[in-house]
Amino acid sequence: MNKTAERTSVGELQELLAAGLPVTVVDVRSLADLDWAIPGSVHVDAYDDLKAGHLGPLAELKLPRGPVVTVCGMGHTAAIATDLLRARGVDASTLEGGMQAWSLAWNAAELTVDGCEVVQVRRTGKGCLSYIVASRGEALVIDASVDPDVYVRLLEQRRLRLVGVLDTHIHADHLSRSKLLADREGVDLWLPAQRPTHFPFRAVADGARIPFGDAELIALHSPGHTAESTTYLLDNVAAFTGDTLFLTGVGRPDLEGGDTHDVATRARRLHASIRRLLELPAGVLILPGHVSDPVRFDGRPLATQVGTVRDSVSLTRLNQEAFVEAVLTRIPPTPPNHAKIVELNERGELPDDPTELEAGANRCAIA
Ligand SMILES: [Fe+2]
Fold this sequence. Notes:
Layout: E1 7-8, H1 10-18, E2 24-27, E3 42-43, H2 47-51, E4 68-71, H3 76-87, E5 92-95, H4 98-102, E6 106-113, E7 116-123, E8 128-135, E9 138-142, H5 148-157, E10 161-166, H6 178-185, E11 188-192, E12 202-204, E13 209-212, E14 215-221, E15 230-234, E16 238-242, E17 250-251, H7 260-278, E18 285-288, E19 304-305, H8 306-312, H9 320-330, H10 338-347, E20 365-366
Parallel strand pairs: 1-5, 2-3, 2-4, 4-5, 9-10, 10-11, 11-12, 16-18
Antiparallel strand pairs: 6-7, 7-8, 8-9, 13-14, 14-15, 15-16, 17-20, 18-19
The chain binds fe (ii) ion.
Residues 169, 171-173, 225, 243, 364 line the site of fe (ii) ion.
């Protein structure tokens, strides 16, 4: 990063954090807007003071050595903070585009599962987890949620050849980049069998096998979150569970709409799907489609074992009716724009700037 720049791009801040370099991120949004944050950032409630042209509580903040990056919703108020801090000699710059632009920031973590290389690509703000899974030089991408360039670069760095792209379901919280990636690289796009999708794809039915290198993914239809939701099993050692089962919770069954009866019916299906997943051997690794909190830049994979979920996620131990009741009473607020996002995903369209539609924290899980 250019130390004298008054602006820092999302990519520059992402690189600083991923490299563990010293940088203090100062978030100046008002408390009411603080539904998600950059990991490690310091919040100072100075929004109204800055709007009035002074630092307010920011003047008291003890800042460590090293650059400071200020952030707000879109970058305007943070720019006032930057100007005032720089006037005091602080090496401050503004995160360009603010939290809306930060929505696209990502980081990665790697693990090896039964000889297969797995790269977990995490959209830090939204908590969307996507995967590159590779065997003997051939790779699949699951649930692409960041720019196709990111996956192409990660594949090139690892000398991997992309042979297919898959989604676990029709997403409602982010715009899928899977079609774009598959089209760009000229490989098959595999989606769970369903009717709403308006473009050609290879339909995945329960039990379908998707080969790559020496390995294969086996599709396990796991409805409930959505009708078509599918888990991909990797040689019975790992399960890419999409939004059916998370590390500490289960998927929400309400986003396909309908009345309480419809949602309860989907919750029953979700219960059955989760039961099926938890019958897998205790050591099988759960690799979900989301986490609820912003993903840290620590390179640590977000994964857990079937046995741990069985022991620690109390919802999964309830009988069917108790589960339905618990899920229905704990459904979080509906994410903004979800109907529009589903519609665009069904049409396979991606707006030039997806960040406005995708704004906000992730609300996929029920715990
Ligand atoms: Fe979802």
